Amino acid sequence: MEKRKFGRTGQEFPILSFGAQRIVDDHNCTEEEAIQIVNRAIDEGITYFDTAPIYSNGQSEERLGKAFGDRRSKVWVVTKTIDRTRDGSWRSLEASLKRLQTDHVEEWRLHDVRTMEQLDLCFAKNGALRALIEAKEQGIIKHISLSGHTNPNVQLEAIDRFPFDSALVALSAADHFIYSFAHEFLPKANEKGLAIIGMKVIGLGRLAQWYEKALRYTWSLPISTAIIGMESMEQLENNLRVAKSFKPMTDLEKLEFFKEIIHMANPDVLRWKAKDWSNKEEWAERL
Q1: Cβ atoms within 10 Å of 20's Cβ, excluding its own
Q2: SS3 at position 54
Q3: What is the pLDDT of residues 174-189, one digit of tens each?
Q4: Model confidence at 281, in pLDDT bands (50, 70, 90)?
Q5: Is 263 within 8 Å of 226 (Cβ atoms)?
Q6: How far is the C-alpha of 173 from the C-alpha of 181, rounded, in Å?
Q7: What is the per-residue burial (b if ≥16 Cβ within 10 Å, else e) of 127-142?
Q8: For residue 234, what are the contacts with CB-CB under 8 A and spacing of at least 6?
């Protein structure tokens, strides 16, 4: 698989990275299957694993911790805090480390910051960002990150206020048409040297009909890697197949693809663009 530099960190990762939200009972993935999928991914060179404590009440983190075992040093682990306060975020991190069976994570993210009001809470004197800074100073985390699904202006403001190391943002082909992180966020983020991770690549399954094109579109953007949710060995193998044969989309290919999917730019598909969208809705979805 093609590898790319990960911002200013000095690291590089394959274009295909592992979104661990789906290796849980809620997606009909057993613990045994989850462990097998994760280890198969590592065998194939995938080393970047993204999770969060709210994914099935910590089960995603627990299964990653069990799956890594003595291979922990071979992987880059990312978790998040949805809490907007310093103290709440510290409690969240302590619980995450216990479930992940580790004493540190490579990245810790402010999870799903949607509005300027939420951003202000994170940046307050006793806001969540204070916990991230303290954890980095103590060596418990190595890099500070944030994520955003909804409005790129929020993430643009965030990276103007603080030198984040990375950002996880919605970069499906359907996102191209409204509140586009590809248009509005990527240029400045790249200029600042952030590592950029794409998500929502298959649009909660709504782009499944165009599965390979959807992957190629996101990987053709100036990003470091993209996390893809995987709940079965079949999905992992299909993702590996497409990644290994990846060729960037030409401008003409992108234009033809946009013509095919422009009707998908609607509230039913792009629910994460709405301020009142709940992550719980996503848990019920399949890739």
Answers
A1: 28
A2: coil
A3: 888 778 899 999 999 9
A4: very low
A5: no
A6: 11
A7: bbbbbbeebeeeebbb
A8: none
